[in-house]
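Predict fold of Putative proline/betaine transporter; 444 aa.
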Amino acid sequence: MSVIVHSKKVKRKALVASLIGSSIEYYDYLLYGTVASLVFNKLFFPNFSPAVGLLIALASFGIPYFFRPLGGIIFSHIGDKIGRKKSLVYTLGIMGVSTALIGLLPGYQSIGVWAPVLLVTLRLIQGIAVGGEWGGAVLLAVEYTEKEKRGFAGSIPMMGAAVGMILATATISLVSLLPDAAFLSWGWRIPFVGSLALVLIGLWIRNGLEETPDFQKAKDEGKVSKLPIADTLKYHWKEVLLITGAKAIETAPFYMFATFGVSYATNTLKMPESPVLNAVTIGTLVSLFMIPLIGKLSDRIGRKSIFIGGTLGVIIFSIPYFLLLSKKSVLLLTVAVMIGYGLWSIITSVMGTLFSEMFKAEIRYTGISVGYQLGAALFGGTAPLIATWLIAKFNGSWLPAAIYLMLLGVLSLICVVLLKTMSERENSASTKDQSYLADKIVKN
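Predicted 3D structure, encoded as C-alpha coordinates:
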Protein backbone atom coordinates (compact mmCIF):
# COMPACT_ATOMS: atom_id res chain seq x y z
CA MET A 1 0.00 0.00 0.00
CA SER A 2 1.38 3.46 -0.88
CA VAL A 3 2.36 5.87 1.87
CA ILE A 4 0.45 9.15 1.92
CA VAL A 5 2.87 12.07 1.54
CA HIS A 6 1.76 15.67 1.92
CA SER A 7 3.64 18.80 0.90
CA LYS A 8 5.13 21.22 3.45
CA LYS A 9 2.41 23.69 2.51
CA VAL A 10 -0.35 21.23 3.48
CA LYS A 11 1.44 20.36 6.74
CA ARG A 12 1.76 24.06 7.61
CA LYS A 13 -1.92 24.55 6.81
CA ALA A 14 -2.77 21.71 9.18
CA LEU A 15 -0.76 23.36 11.98
CA VAL A 16 -2.42 26.72 11.33
CA ALA A 17 -5.85 25.06 11.29
CA SER A 18 -5.18 23.30 14.61
CA LEU A 19 -3.98 26.52 16.28
CA ILE A 20 -6.72 28.79 14.92
CA GLY A 21 -9.45 26.29 15.74
CA SER A 22 -8.30 25.64 19.31
CA SER A 23 -7.70 29.37 19.90
CA ILE A 24 -11.22 30.26 18.74
CA GLU A 25 -12.75 27.47 20.83
CA TYR A 26 -10.95 28.64 23.97
CA TYR A 27 -11.65 32.30 23.19
CA ASP A 28 -15.37 31.54 23.09
CA TYR A 29 -15.12 29.32 26.17
CA LEU A 30 -13.06 31.73 28.31
CA LEU A 31 -15.01 34.79 27.14
CA TYR A 32 -17.87 33.57 29.31
CA GLY A 33 -15.70 33.49 32.42
CA THR A 34 -14.41 37.00 31.74
CA VAL A 35 -17.95 38.42 31.44
CA ALA A 36 -19.64 36.30 34.15
CA SER A 37 -18.60 38.45 37.10
CA LEU A 38 -19.19 41.74 35.25
CA VAL A 39 -22.55 41.21 33.54
CA PHE A 40 -24.31 37.89 34.02
CA ASN A 41 -24.93 38.27 37.76
CA LYS A 42 -26.79 41.53 37.01
CA LEU A 43 -28.66 40.65 33.82
CA PHE A 44 -29.49 36.97 34.32
CA PHE A 45 -29.53 36.45 38.11
CA PRO A 46 -30.89 39.79 39.44
CA ASN A 47 -33.29 38.28 42.02
CA PHE A 48 -30.39 37.23 44.23
CA SER A 49 -28.15 39.38 46.38
CA PRO A 50 -25.08 40.64 44.50
CA ALA A 51 -22.82 38.12 46.27
CA VAL A 52 -25.10 35.13 45.59
CA GLY A 53 -25.71 36.25 42.01
CA LEU A 54 -21.94 36.42 41.47
CA LEU A 55 -21.45 32.93 42.92
CA ILE A 56 -24.17 31.50 40.66
CA ALA A 57 -22.69 33.24 37.61
CA LEU A 58 -19.23 31.83 38.42
CA ALA A 59 -20.71 28.38 39.11
CA SER A 60 -22.24 28.43 35.63
CA PHE A 61 -18.66 28.95 34.38
CA GLY A 62 -17.37 25.86 36.21
CA ILE A 63 -20.22 23.37 35.75
CA PRO A 64 -19.53 22.72 32.02
CA TYR A 65 -16.19 21.17 32.96
CA PHE A 66 -18.14 18.09 33.99
CA PHE A 67 -19.76 17.96 30.54
CA ARG A 68 -16.44 18.07 28.72
CA PRO A 69 -15.91 14.27 29.03
CA LEU A 70 -19.31 13.80 27.37
CA GLY A 71 -18.17 16.00 24.49
CA GLY A 72 -14.95 14.02 24.33
CA ILE A 73 -16.89 10.77 23.96
CA ILE A 74 -19.36 12.10 21.37
CA PHE A 75 -16.91 13.83 19.06
CA SER A 76 -14.08 11.34 19.45
CA HIS A 77 -16.54 8.67 18.28
CA ILE A 78 -17.11 10.73 15.14
CA GLY A 79 -13.38 11.40 14.82
CA ASP A 80 -12.35 7.73 15.12
CA LYS A 81 -15.23 6.35 13.05
CA ILE A 82 -15.90 8.96 10.34
CA GLY A 83 -12.86 11.22 10.43
CA ARG A 84 -10.97 13.91 12.35
CA LYS A 85 -11.97 16.63 9.90
CA LYS A 86 -15.71 16.02 10.26
CA SER A 87 -15.54 16.06 14.04
CA LEU A 88 -13.52 19.29 14.13
CA VAL A 89 -15.93 21.07 11.80
CA TYR A 90 -18.81 20.06 14.10
CA THR A 91 -17.12 21.21 17.33
CA LEU A 92 -16.11 24.58 15.92
CA GLY A 93 -19.53 25.18 14.37
CA ILE A 94 -21.43 24.23 17.53
CA MET A 95 -19.17 26.40 19.68
CA GLY A 96 -19.59 29.37 17.35
CA VAL A 97 -23.39 29.18 17.23
CA SER A 98 -23.80 28.69 20.99
CA THR A 99 -21.45 31.61 21.74
CA ALA A 100 -23.28 33.93 19.33
CA LEU A 101 -26.64 32.94 20.86
CA ILE A 102 -25.35 33.88 24.33
CA GLY A 103 -24.64 37.34 22.92
CA LEU A 104 -28.21 37.56 21.62
CA LEU A 105 -30.00 36.31 24.76
CA PRO A 106 -32.59 38.63 26.33
CA GLY A 107 -32.09 39.33 30.03
CA TYR A 108 -34.19 38.35 33.05
CA GLN A 109 -36.25 41.54 32.77
CA SER A 110 -37.45 40.46 29.31
CA ILE A 111 -38.15 36.71 29.53
CA GLY A 112 -37.93 35.96 33.24
CA VAL A 113 -36.53 32.63 34.43
CA TRP A 114 -35.94 31.46 30.86
CA ALA A 115 -33.00 33.87 30.63
CA PRO A 116 -30.75 32.06 33.16
CA VAL A 117 -32.04 28.65 32.00
CA LEU A 118 -31.08 29.34 28.37
CA LEU A 119 -27.78 30.91 29.44
CA VAL A 120 -26.72 27.84 31.42
CA THR A 121 -27.95 25.52 28.64
CA LEU A 122 -25.83 27.30 26.03
CA ARG A 123 -22.90 27.21 28.44
CA LEU A 124 -23.26 23.43 28.78
CA ILE A 125 -23.30 23.10 24.98
CA GLN A 126 -20.05 25.10 24.94
CA GLY A 127 -18.57 22.60 27.41
CA ILE A 128 -19.56 19.66 25.22
CA ALA A 129 -18.06 21.32 22.12
CA VAL A 130 -14.72 22.18 23.74
CA GLY A 131 -14.60 18.62 25.13
CA GLY A 132 -14.41 17.29 21.57
CA GLU A 133 -12.16 20.01 20.17
CA TRP A 134 -8.88 19.38 21.97
CA GLY A 135 -8.25 15.81 20.83
CA GLY A 136 -9.07 16.59 17.22
CA ALA A 137 -6.89 19.70 17.13
CA VAL A 138 -3.91 17.77 18.53
CA LEU A 139 -4.36 14.92 16.05
CA LEU A 140 -4.77 17.32 13.15
CA ALA A 141 -1.31 18.67 13.96
CA VAL A 142 0.39 15.41 14.97
CA GLU A 143 -0.98 13.05 12.32
CA TYR A 144 0.02 15.35 9.46
CA THR A 145 3.62 15.44 10.70
CA GLU A 146 6.49 12.96 10.45
CA LYS A 147 7.30 11.22 13.74
CA GLU A 148 10.62 12.97 14.38
CA LYS A 149 8.90 16.40 14.37
CA ARG A 150 5.67 15.56 16.21
CA GLY A 151 6.78 17.15 19.48
CA PHE A 152 6.83 20.60 17.88
CA ALA A 153 3.66 19.94 15.86
CA GLY A 154 1.72 18.74 18.93
CA SER A 155 2.73 21.84 20.88
CA ILE A 156 1.05 24.22 18.41
CA PRO A 157 -2.60 23.48 19.32
CA MET A 158 -1.59 23.55 23.01
CA MET A 159 -1.09 27.30 22.55
CA GLY A 160 -4.85 27.65 21.96
CA ALA A 161 -5.79 28.13 25.62
CA ALA A 162 -3.23 30.93 26.04
CA VAL A 163 -4.21 32.64 22.77
CA GLY A 164 -7.89 32.32 23.65
CA MET A 165 -7.34 33.85 27.08
CA ILE A 166 -5.43 36.82 25.65
CA LEU A 167 -8.10 37.42 22.98
CA ALA A 168 -10.95 37.20 25.50
CA THR A 169 -9.25 39.52 28.00
CA ALA A 170 -8.24 42.06 25.34
CA THR A 171 -11.68 42.11 23.71
CA ILE A 172 -13.53 42.64 26.97
CA SER A 173 -11.03 45.31 28.05
CA LEU A 174 -11.74 47.14 24.80
CA VAL A 175 -15.55 47.11 25.00
CA SER A 176 -15.45 47.91 28.73
CA LEU A 177 -14.16 51.36 27.75
CA LEU A 178 -17.77 52.14 26.81
CA PRO A 179 -19.94 53.96 29.36
CA ASP A 180 -21.23 51.55 32.03
CA ALA A 181 -24.84 51.72 30.82
CA ALA A 182 -23.87 51.00 27.21
CA PHE A 183 -21.52 48.19 28.19
CA LEU A 184 -24.18 46.54 30.37
CA SER A 185 -26.89 46.99 27.74
CA TRP A 186 -25.20 45.95 24.49
CA GLY A 187 -21.42 46.40 24.65
CA TRP A 188 -20.70 43.04 26.28
CA ARG A 189 -22.63 41.29 23.48
CA ILE A 190 -20.25 42.40 20.71
CA PRO A 191 -17.42 39.90 21.46
CA PHE A 192 -19.92 37.01 21.61
CA VAL A 193 -21.70 37.75 18.34
CA GLY A 194 -18.50 38.94 16.66
CA SER A 195 -16.80 35.59 17.33
CA LEU A 196 -18.87 34.16 14.45
CA ALA A 197 -16.49 35.89 12.04
CA LEU A 198 -13.53 34.06 13.61
CA VAL A 199 -15.44 30.78 13.50
CA LEU A 200 -16.18 31.16 9.79
CA ILE A 201 -12.46 31.70 9.12
CA GLY A 202 -11.60 28.62 11.17
CA LEU A 203 -14.23 26.52 9.36
CA TRP A 204 -12.96 27.68 5.97
CA ILE A 205 -9.39 26.65 6.79
CA ARG A 206 -10.35 23.29 8.32
CA ASN A 207 -12.78 22.43 5.56
CA GLY A 208 -10.01 22.88 3.00
CA LEU A 209 -7.93 20.07 4.51
CA GLU A 210 -8.05 16.40 3.59
CA GLU A 211 -8.36 13.68 6.23
CA THR A 212 -5.23 13.10 8.33
CA PRO A 213 -2.81 10.52 6.87
CA ASP A 214 -2.93 8.24 9.94
CA PHE A 215 -6.72 7.98 9.93
CA GLN A 216 -6.88 7.61 6.16
CA LYS A 217 -4.38 4.75 6.36
CA ALA A 218 -6.44 3.01 9.07
CA LYS A 219 -9.57 3.51 6.97
CA ASP A 220 -7.93 2.13 3.82
CA GLU A 221 -6.74 -0.94 5.73
CA GLY A 222 -10.21 -1.55 7.18
CA LYS A 223 -9.08 -0.97 10.77
CA VAL A 224 -11.70 1.63 11.71
CA SER A 225 -13.28 0.68 15.05
CA LYS A 226 -17.03 0.01 15.08
CA LEU A 227 -17.38 1.35 18.63
CA PRO A 228 -14.20 3.25 19.62
CA ILE A 229 -15.24 3.95 23.22
CA ALA A 230 -15.87 0.25 23.86
CA ASP A 231 -12.51 -0.79 22.38
CA THR A 232 -10.73 1.95 24.31
CA LEU A 233 -12.22 1.06 27.69
CA LYS A 234 -11.84 -2.67 27.09
CA TYR A 235 -8.20 -2.73 26.00
CA HIS A 236 -6.76 0.61 27.15
CA TRP A 237 -8.56 1.54 30.37
CA LYS A 238 -5.24 1.70 32.23
CA GLU A 239 -3.86 4.25 29.77
CA VAL A 240 -7.05 6.35 30.09
CA LEU A 241 -6.77 6.38 33.91
CA LEU A 242 -3.08 7.26 33.78
CA ILE A 243 -3.75 10.13 31.36
CA THR A 244 -6.51 11.38 33.69
CA GLY A 245 -4.05 11.45 36.60
CA ALA A 246 -1.23 12.95 34.54
CA LYS A 247 -3.54 15.77 33.42
CA ALA A 248 -3.91 16.97 37.04
CA ILE A 249 -0.59 18.85 37.15
CA GLU A 250 -1.29 20.60 33.85
CA THR A 251 -4.87 21.71 34.39
CA ALA A 252 -4.78 22.64 38.11
CA PRO A 253 -1.82 25.07 37.86
CA PHE A 254 -3.37 26.78 34.81
CA TYR A 255 -6.38 27.82 36.88
CA MET A 256 -4.46 28.22 40.15
CA PHE A 257 -2.05 30.71 38.55
CA ALA A 258 -4.87 32.52 36.72
CA THR A 259 -8.42 32.26 38.11
CA PHE A 260 -7.50 31.50 41.73
CA GLY A 261 -4.40 33.72 41.69
CA VAL A 262 -6.47 36.75 40.64
CA SER A 263 -9.18 36.01 43.22
CA TYR A 264 -6.67 35.43 46.05
CA ALA A 265 -4.58 38.51 45.27
CA THR A 266 -7.55 40.90 44.88
CA ASN A 267 -9.99 39.56 47.50
CA THR A 268 -7.75 38.13 50.24
CA LEU A 269 -4.60 40.23 49.83
CA LYS A 270 -6.56 43.34 48.73
CA MET A 271 -4.22 44.10 45.84
CA PRO A 272 -5.45 46.34 42.97
CA GLU A 273 -7.15 44.36 40.20
CA SER A 274 -5.50 45.96 37.16
CA PRO A 275 -1.83 45.03 37.90
CA VAL A 276 -2.94 41.53 38.92
CA LEU A 277 -4.67 41.02 35.58
CA ASN A 278 -1.65 42.49 33.81
CA ALA A 279 0.56 39.93 35.56
CA VAL A 280 -1.63 37.09 34.26
CA THR A 281 -1.47 38.56 30.74
CA ILE A 282 2.34 38.75 30.92
CA GLY A 283 2.48 35.15 32.19
CA THR A 284 0.27 34.05 29.31
CA LEU A 285 2.54 35.81 26.80
CA VAL A 286 5.54 33.98 28.31
CA SER A 287 3.77 30.67 27.68
CA LEU A 288 3.10 31.57 24.04
CA PHE A 289 6.85 31.78 23.41
CA MET A 290 7.82 28.82 25.56
CA ILE A 291 5.33 26.20 24.35
CA PRO A 292 6.62 25.78 20.76
CA LEU A 293 10.27 25.99 21.92
CA ILE A 294 9.78 23.22 24.49
CA GLY A 295 7.78 21.20 21.96
CA LYS A 296 10.71 21.39 19.55
CA LEU A 297 13.12 20.40 22.32
CA SER A 298 11.01 17.31 23.07
CA ASP A 299 11.81 15.98 19.60
CA ARG A 300 15.43 15.75 20.77
CA ILE A 301 15.25 14.63 24.39
CA GLY A 302 11.80 13.01 24.62
CA ARG A 303 8.36 13.97 25.81
CA LYS A 304 8.29 12.06 29.07
CA SER A 305 11.52 13.49 30.49
CA ILE A 306 10.30 17.05 29.81
CA PHE A 307 6.91 16.33 31.39
CA ILE A 308 8.61 14.92 34.50
CA GLY A 309 10.93 17.94 34.70
CA GLY A 310 8.01 20.38 34.47
CA THR A 311 6.05 18.45 37.09
CA LEU A 312 8.97 18.49 39.53
CA GLY A 313 9.26 22.22 38.87
CA VAL A 314 5.62 22.84 39.84
CA ILE A 315 5.99 20.72 43.00
CA ILE A 316 9.10 22.66 44.06
CA PHE A 317 7.60 26.07 43.17
CA SER A 318 4.20 25.57 44.86
CA ILE A 319 5.26 27.04 48.22
CA PRO A 320 7.48 29.84 46.79
CA TYR A 321 4.56 30.87 44.53
CA PHE A 322 2.25 31.60 47.46
CA LEU A 323 5.13 33.07 49.45
CA LEU A 324 5.80 35.61 46.69
CA LEU A 325 2.09 36.46 46.47
CA SER A 326 1.86 36.99 50.22
CA LYS A 327 4.41 39.86 49.99
CA LYS A 328 1.68 41.98 48.31
CA SER A 329 4.19 43.34 45.81
CA VAL A 330 3.08 43.82 42.21
CA LEU A 331 6.62 43.07 41.02
CA LEU A 332 6.92 39.84 43.02
CA LEU A 333 3.39 38.83 41.98
CA THR A 334 4.34 39.29 38.32
CA VAL A 335 7.53 37.26 38.79
CA ALA A 336 5.55 34.49 40.52
CA VAL A 337 2.96 34.31 37.74
CA MET A 338 5.65 34.35 35.03
CA ILE A 339 7.52 31.46 36.64
CA GLY A 340 4.26 29.59 37.24
CA TYR A 341 3.14 29.93 33.64
CA GLY A 342 6.63 29.04 32.46
CA LEU A 343 6.47 25.74 34.36
CA TRP A 344 2.93 25.13 33.11
CA SER A 345 4.18 25.72 29.55
CA ILE A 346 6.81 22.99 29.93
CA ILE A 347 4.13 20.45 30.84
CA THR A 348 1.40 21.49 28.41
CA SER A 349 3.78 21.77 25.44
CA VAL A 350 4.43 18.00 25.35
CA MET A 351 1.11 16.72 26.69
CA GLY A 352 -0.76 16.40 23.40
CA THR A 353 1.99 14.52 21.59
CA LEU A 354 2.79 12.33 24.61
CA PHE A 355 -0.82 11.25 25.02
CA SER A 356 -1.33 10.67 21.29
CA GLU A 357 1.61 8.24 21.31
CA MET A 358 -0.27 6.00 23.73
CA PHE A 359 -2.81 4.72 21.19
CA LYS A 360 -3.17 3.30 17.69
CA ALA A 361 -4.76 5.56 15.08
CA GLU A 362 -8.11 3.75 15.09
CA ILE A 363 -8.92 4.69 18.73
CA ARG A 364 -6.45 7.55 19.27
CA TYR A 365 -9.03 10.37 19.27
CA THR A 366 -11.15 8.54 21.85
CA GLY A 367 -8.24 7.50 24.06
CA ILE A 368 -6.69 10.95 24.43
CA SER A 369 -10.01 12.83 24.63
CA VAL A 370 -11.63 10.73 27.35
CA GLY A 371 -8.55 10.70 29.60
CA TYR A 372 -7.76 14.38 29.03
CA GLN A 373 -11.32 15.63 29.60
CA LEU A 374 -11.85 13.46 32.69
CA GLY A 375 -8.69 15.02 34.11
CA ALA A 376 -9.94 18.52 33.21
CA ALA A 377 -13.28 17.83 34.93
CA LEU A 378 -11.78 16.33 38.10
CA PHE A 379 -8.78 18.61 38.59
CA GLY A 380 -9.35 21.72 36.43
CA GLY A 381 -12.63 23.43 37.27
CA THR A 382 -12.41 22.23 40.88
CA ALA A 383 -8.87 23.52 41.63
CA PRO A 384 -9.78 27.19 42.36
CA LEU A 385 -12.77 26.12 44.47
CA ILE A 386 -10.75 23.61 46.53
CA ALA A 387 -7.91 26.08 47.03
CA THR A 388 -10.34 28.79 48.14
CA TRP A 389 -12.05 26.37 50.55
CA LEU A 390 -8.71 25.24 52.03
CA ILE A 391 -7.58 28.81 52.70
CA ALA A 392 -10.92 29.62 54.36
CA LYS A 393 -10.85 26.36 56.36
CA PHE A 394 -7.35 27.05 57.73
CA ASN A 395 -7.96 30.67 58.72
CA GLY A 396 -6.41 32.32 55.69
CA SER A 397 -3.26 30.19 55.55
CA TRP A 398 -2.11 29.50 51.99
CA LEU A 399 0.03 26.50 52.98
CA PRO A 400 -2.78 23.87 52.59
CA ALA A 401 -3.46 25.13 49.04
CA ALA A 402 0.24 24.84 48.20
CA ILE A 403 0.37 21.31 49.64
CA TYR A 404 -2.74 20.41 47.61
CA LEU A 405 -0.96 21.51 44.42
CA MET A 406 2.13 19.52 45.42
CA LEU A 407 0.06 16.37 46.01
CA LEU A 408 -1.48 16.72 42.55
CA GLY A 409 2.07 16.92 41.22
CA VAL A 410 3.02 13.68 42.96
CA LEU A 411 -0.09 11.98 41.52
CA SER A 412 0.79 13.13 37.99
CA LEU A 413 4.42 12.15 38.45
CA ILE A 414 3.43 8.58 39.31
CA CYS A 415 0.99 8.38 36.38
CA VAL A 416 3.37 9.70 33.73
CA VAL A 417 6.18 7.40 34.90
CA LEU A 418 3.82 4.44 34.45
CA LEU A 419 2.68 5.60 30.99
CA LYS A 420 4.10 3.63 28.08
CA THR A 421 3.94 4.76 24.47
CA MET A 422 2.99 2.40 21.66
CA SER A 423 6.65 2.05 20.65
CA GLU A 424 7.68 1.29 24.25
CA ARG A 425 5.00 -1.41 24.52
CA GLU A 426 6.03 -2.88 21.16
CA ASN A 427 9.71 -2.90 22.16
CA SER A 428 8.80 -4.53 25.47
CA ALA A 429 6.78 -7.21 23.68
CA SER A 430 9.62 -7.77 21.18
CA THR A 431 12.14 -8.15 24.03
CA LYS A 432 9.91 -10.71 25.74
CA ASP A 433 9.54 -12.66 22.48
CA GLN A 434 13.31 -12.66 21.96
CA SER A 435 13.86 -13.77 25.55
CA TYR A 436 11.33 -16.57 25.12
CA LEU A 437 13.03 -17.77 21.91
CA ALA A 438 16.47 -17.63 23.53
CA ASP A 439 15.25 -19.71 26.49
CA LYS A 440 13.68 -22.21 24.11
CA ILE A 441 16.92 -22.55 22.11
CA VAL A 442 18.95 -23.06 25.29
CA LYS A 443 16.56 -25.74 26.54
CA ASN A 444 16.66 -27.55 23.22
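The first helix runs from residue 8 to 43.
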